[in-house]
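Technical note accompanying the year-one report. For the benefit of new consortium partners, we illustrate the data format agreed upon in the data management plan: each record pairs a sequence with a structure-token string. No post-processing was applied to the example shown here.
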Amino acid sequence: MTPLLVVDNLHVSVEGKEILKGLTLTVHAGQVHALMGPNGSGKSTLSFCLMGHPKYKISQGHLLYNGQDVAGLSPDARAKAGIFLAFQYPTAIPGVTIANFLRTALKAVRGEEVPVREFRQLVKNQLKALGIQDGFMSRYVNDGFSGGEKKRLEILQLAVLQPKLAVLDETDSGLDIDALKVVAAGINKLRSPERGILLITHYQRILNYIKPDVVHVLVDGSVVKSGGADLALELERQGYKGFETVAQSAAVNKVT
């Protein structure tokens, strides 16, 4: 079976500075992969590169989605193909209701108008499944939202758009424990044999509620170790210092 996502020896630069330095990982449909790493390791760079941000330049390697090299595709083409990015810091859009925003996004992804009745039923079902009040839909997108509300909206978008690959960039950032549990429960509801999830995070705490199939440790632009869910617990105990030593040794070996 063709993997959903293959990142092969990916080198990515931002404004002339190389951030990703040979990153490699593979995600299959039905799997949840956690990508963990310290600040500056390249986690968000990978998420923006996956979504096609023009600021992030691929200098080497391959980025394959469903067997297709997507490096040359625009962000909207990637979204239509089924790639979704939940931002670490979602943008507020005053004056645009969540209902209008979601219906427009769904139309863009499907390539056709969504009948009002179908859209309302879809949203109603997902609001109920995620435990979100109906009044949420009439609010403006992220305008005056708490951190938890912003992340709930990201999960609602994921539920409505039903992408094949969901990239969640530090979805746990800024959440208190109650909001974290709600968001984690929403992500677990959206696990599916047809969907792959790449969960990017600093901390192990969200993995108390979402059990990953694979954990990757990203240090200085490359994955230095991959393993099962227990690897996140190892990180929690020892921190990133030991893995940073591994990354430094690997860099020295490349040079020599």
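Partners are asked to follow this layout when depositing records. Helices lie at 43-51, 75-81, 98-110, 116-130, 147-161, 177-189, 230-238, 241-255.
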